[in-house]
Structure formats: C-alpha cells, structure tokens
Design a protein that fits this description.
Length: 298
C-alpha cells in the first residue's frame, strides 16, 4: 500500500492503496535460505540472536506487550487474577442457580423453620439451602452439569495458554535484562521510545534479524500494528460492514468487541484467513485469477 501525489513526509496521510502485483510462481520453500550466508558475531549465543521470524519477537506476548503490561510480575499477577475471576464467576453463578431458595428470599413462601414468627425479616442465611440439598439440585440438572464441564474445559485451555505465555514472558524478561540492559525494577521508568531505541542499537551491534541488516522504527511499527493497519485500511475502503444507515438517525458506525473478534478470526487467524502465519499472506491471495474463488470461499 502506497500513497500517490506530493505529501509532507513528516505527516503522511492515507489517500490511495495499490494492488499487490500478480504472483503466479512462488519461490520454492527454503531456496533463499539456502543461499543466505550468516556471519555470527562474537558474544552471548542466546535464543534471540539471528532470528528468522522477527515477528515472533515484536508482537504479543513479547517485547511490546511486555512493556505495555509493565513487566513480568504484573503479567503473572494479571493472568492469575483472570483465572481466579473466571472460577469465581462460574462458582458464584452455580451457587445462585442451585443453592438459593428464591421463594423464601422474596417472601412468596413463609419460612418453614420452627420458632420463627410471621413477618420476620428474611436474611440471606434463611434463603440459602443446605449443602446436601444444593448438591442434589446440581446433580439433577443435566444441562447445568454440561455447562460446568464446558466451563472447566475452557478454564483448562486458558490455564495452558497462560502457562505458555509465562514461558515466553520469562524469556523476554531475560532479553530486557541481558540484551537491552533494563532491569525489571526500572522498566516502568522507560518509555516505549527508549526501549525501541535500545532495540535498534542492539540490531546494529549484534544482529537480531537475519534477513535485514538494519531495523527501523517503521519496521517495528509495521510488525506490531500489522493486523490493525489492515483493518483500518479495509474500513477506509468500505470493505468491512461497519457503516449502517438507520432511519431518522442517518449513517452510524457499529463495531462491537464481538464483531471485531469475529472479523479478526475470519480475516487473520482462522483456517480461511488471508495470512498463512503472522507475517506473510497466502500465495493464493496474491494471484489475480484466484481472487474470485477465494472471495466466494470466504
């Protein structure tokens, strides 16, 4: 995507987008990699040196989001609290469905307890069912048991995802300390511009990225905001259904979190997405002759 016409280079604005060139033949996998000669500089041989996929180091859950989430301790605490919050919501919802006698709570049925006169104020303990009765009501509801099993599976998936992110965040913590020279207790004092400047200086000193000799701020921003830039471009070109015309109100924009999640899943992360990974388009998308079939499939 490029711009046409004269524009101030310091304040670029969106005007036009150019089509991708037709690509009928793609290079065989690994052809370029076999002809690439690497010069390994002296220094620590950590896992972040000579990275072939630089996107994996500059997009979530890595350098940028590690900085935005204020370091390793805040990341771990946030993930743990999210897991605890999910358990609390499921547990409390189950308690409200199975362990509360709402007839007693709303005084539609008198209390059956002994030595309790009429018109006595109902308290919360009066409306809570005993544990055995609550367990019987839970076992007698098949759909509720199914939902609890489903919620347990979702929680386990979120736990596994959190543990995987934890490993990645620990590696990035080491990267901040050993490569960028930013201790964990000083991360909050560094802006993203400062972290980015150290990252670019590290690329010049000890190459991080194999395909490029030098990184720029634009390279980093493109990798962090790639999917968002595509979304903004499609909205600007009126390709996404987010504009509606309502009677009496006129044109309105409707883009909820749920609709945004579904669009991202459809376009960027699903099995029929435009990208074959986090950084490159599928070869079929670049071919003009296959676009109509791809559009119908999508």
């Amino acid at each position: 995507m490029a711009e046409q016409g004269e524009k101030d280079p310091e304040y670029p604005e969106y005007r036009e987008y150019q089509r991708l060139e037709d690509c009928e033949e793609d290079s065989p996998p690994g052809e370029d990699e076999e002809q690439l000669l690497l010069h390994v500089t002296e220094g620590p041989t950590d896992s972040w040196h000579h990275i072939k996929d630089l996107d994996s180091s500059l997009t979530p859950p890595y350098i940028y989001h590690f900085h935005q989430r204020n370091g390793f301790a805040c990341v771990v605490l946030s993930d743990v609290l999210e897991l605890v919050q999910f358990l609390f919501v499921v547990t409390f919802s189950t308690f409200l469905l199975c362990c509360v006698d709402y007839d007693v709570l709303f005084a539609t049925r008198p209390l059956n307890q002994s030595h309790v006169p009429d018109h006595t104020k109902v308290t919360l303990p009066d409306a809570v069912l005993p544990a055995p009765q609550c367990a019987r009501r839970l076992r007698g509801s098949g759909w509720l048991l199914f939902l609890l099993v489903l919620a347990g599976m979702v929680w386990l998936c979120r736990l596994v995802t959190a543990l995987r992110r934890l490993v990645g965040y620990w590696e990035i913590r080491s990267f901040y300390i050993r490569a960028l020279g930013i201790p964990s207790d000083e991360l909050c004092n560094h802006s993203w511009q400062s972290v980015q400047a150290r990252l670019l200086a590290l690329q010049r000193r000890q190459p991080l990225c194999v395909p490029r000799q030098e990184l720029t701020e634009l390279d980093i921003h493109h990798r962090i905001l790639r999917f968002r830039n595509y979304t903004v471009a499609m909205v600007n070109k009126s390709l996404l259904p987010v504009h509606f015309h309502l009677p009496l109100l006129g044109p309105v924009v409707f883009l909820t979190r749920g609709l945004q999640f579904n669009l991202e899943l459809l376009l960027f992360r699903g099995p029929a997405a435009l990208f074959q990974n986090t950084w490159s388009l599928r070869p079929q998308v670049k071919r003009v002759g296959a676009r109509r079939a791809l559009a119908q499939e999508l």
